[in-house]
Write the structure tokens for this entry.
Amino acid sequence: MSTRKAMPILLCLAVLLSSCSKGDNGVNNPPSNLPAISVQNATVKRENEAATARFYVDLSAKSDQQVSVKYATESGTAKSDEDFQSTSGTLTFKPGEKELSVDVAIPIDSLRQSSQTFYMTLSDPQNAKIETGKATGTIINNGTYLPTDTAGYDTPKSYPGYNLVWNDEFNDSQLNKNDWNYETGGGGWGNNELENYTSRPQNSFLSSGNLIIEARKEDYEGNHYTSARITTKGKQEFTYGRIDIRAKLPVDKGMWPALWMLGDNISSVGWPQCGEIDIMELVGQNPQQVVGSLHWKKANGSEGTFNNAHSLSSGDFSQKFHVFSLIWSRDSLKVAVDDIPYTKASRQDLSDGTYPFDNPFFLIFNVAVGGNWPGPPDANTSFPQRMFVDYVRVFQKK
């Protein structure tokens, strides 16, 4: 065979061998026995301080060669160099190494807001192939800065013939434990409620002069929702006077915010004999309506209830602050919204049974999720849900 005739045959053989190392699209494919590289998702909680999101990058098997891969961050709802520090570079696995990591700095941001996401991407592997080349970084923003519109009804810090005997304007950085207790747990609270009450900053915190109780949809100790319930039991208890509470309320289906009181002897005599004063209750399916109620034990041992409702002429109770008041004397109780009394009872109205309203009572603020009265949330209920309390003020006659 002559040299001139052999050259085309050798050239064809080279082309054939080259095509065997390519896929159908003609792009070079890595050998099937190369280790695979994957990057894992990362979640970080940002709570009033800087944080770090760590992405783990793994090889499916150890390699006796040095393996490398390039990495870079990408923006999502979290923005580069604003919500996270952009980063890029090359990871190099030494022979025998199977896991490395990339740290992404998350700068401080105390704003309570929805979770944000960004991405970590891999490219240009050497001596390896990419199996999972994109991971999600999730920033859970649990900061305690949450401004809100302060518009709405307001009441004074003084009334003729009264002294201001106790108040909380919620201007500190944390709830005053000399005045307040957390009640915690998720057993239904006698009403088949769905939340677990916690003392975590995720569920109650102070911001911009407001107490904020936040109900969240999350799994926690056997419940699918969390919230907070605080009381002044054993710390601030009152008999008679005027109590003003300025608040803005959650109003979606399944929500049950309440500002109320119980007799301080509940541990010894039980409910309803201890008495209950509901300065405000709202059930989410009636967003424009609040209810004021009085409960006590009747002579036959059953629960006595005296209540009434008040409805706004326009809008709902989530849009502006309103002042919910109790005007309480020895012989009468009145529950009011924005200085309009709508539940009014005399001693004679409550005379069937044990009259408990001459005893000290303590305050309770809470946001329940679900329960016998409001029913459960539905698909249209958004979370988190929040009650803002601007102040509580207790006045008594001079």
Summary: The two ends are 125 Å apart (CA to CA). The first strand starts at residue 36 and ends at 39. Confidence is low (pLDDT under 50) at residues 1-27.
